[in-house]
């Protein structure tokens, strides 16, 4: 379980995240929804260990993450721009995380193929990121995030750079991939439809605070 208790993050006079308490069961996807500037990214970055907390705590599997650096949290992060390594092949981009885990060549290749299949890009291993469309690049970025078998996947507006029809298609695929792999994820988005498609639960933020929280169906119906 991911548990946030009374989390506050300030930047000078700005309180970006204001006393947020939230929890998420494993295997579930939480969308953090709200207008630009409401504190969604800061909240996600706090979970990742990229922002220091001014108050409160973040716990994962009962462990308080205070003082645990980002790379030791075992989470994967994916952003709007997937930030692929431009000079490496698609397979190497995905395999990088596996190399860190010291998997052998054959096992690594098998796992890369499996991930490419999962994200709908079978046979793309030898391509360079620059030869892929924006949507394909985000699929590769997702495969790379999943390669490390993250306990928790943190997604910050992963589809926002794509055009509307592609975004809708990829949102459906992303939902399916998260469910198939049983991945626990927090998705930051300003797009209500996207949140509804991808997530099990929603937390709606306004000016740093969570003003509504529940299953997607509960929040969807609320006035
Ligand atoms: P969102 O992701 O919902 O667009 P952010 O978390 O990026 O919102 O920002 C929340 C508030 O915190 C905004 O007022 C923003 O200007 C401010 N903020 C975010 N990051 C910083 C930073 N590094 N330094 C100063 N202010 C920041
Ligand atoms: P420092 O060693 O600079 O005082 P901390 O030990 O307070 O830093 O925090 C180290 C990292 O852990 C930071 O990246 C911060 O975002 C994160 N962090 C701090 N407090 C907590 C907390 N209560 N729960 C989860 N993460 C925290």
Automatic annotation (TrEMBL):
It comes from the Bacteria. Its EC number is 7.6.2.9. Residues 2-223 form the ABC transporter domain. Keywords: ATP-binding, Cell membrane, Ion transport, Iron, Iron transport, Membrane, Nucleotide-binding, Transport. Transmembrane segments: none annotated. One of its GO terms (cellular component) is membrane. GO terms for molecular function: ABC-type ferric iron transporter activity; ABC-type quaternary ammonium compound transporting activity; ATP binding; ATP hydrolysis activity. This is ABC-type quaternary amine transporter.
């Amino acid at each position: 379980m991911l548990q946030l208790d009374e989390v506050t993050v300030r930047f000078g006079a700005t309180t970006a995240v204001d006393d947020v308490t939230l929890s998420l069961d494993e295997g579930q996807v939480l969308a953090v929804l709200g207008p630009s500037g409401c504190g969604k990214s800061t909240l996600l970055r706090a979970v990742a260990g990229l922002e220091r907390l001014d108050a409160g705590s973040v716990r994962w599997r009962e462990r308080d993450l205070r003082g645990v650096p980002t790379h030791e949290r075992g989470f994967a992060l994916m952003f709007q721009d997937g930030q692929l390594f431009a000079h490496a092949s698609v397979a190497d981009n995905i395999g990088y995380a596996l190399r860190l885990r010291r998997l052998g060549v054959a096992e690594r290749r098998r796992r890369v193929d499996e991930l490419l299949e999962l994200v709908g890009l079978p046979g793309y291993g030898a391509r360079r990121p620059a030869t892929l469309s924006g949507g394909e690049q985000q699929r590769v970025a997702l495969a790379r995030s999943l390669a490390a078998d993250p306990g928790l996947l943190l997604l910050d507006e992963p589809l926002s750079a794509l055009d509307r029809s592609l975004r809708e298609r990829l949102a459906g695929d992303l939902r399916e991939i998260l469910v198939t792999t049983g991945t626990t994820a927090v998705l930051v988005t300003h797009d209500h439809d996207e949140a509804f498609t991808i997530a099990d639960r929603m937390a709606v933020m306004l000016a740093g605070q969570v003003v509504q929280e529940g299953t997607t169906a509960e929040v969807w119906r609320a006035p």
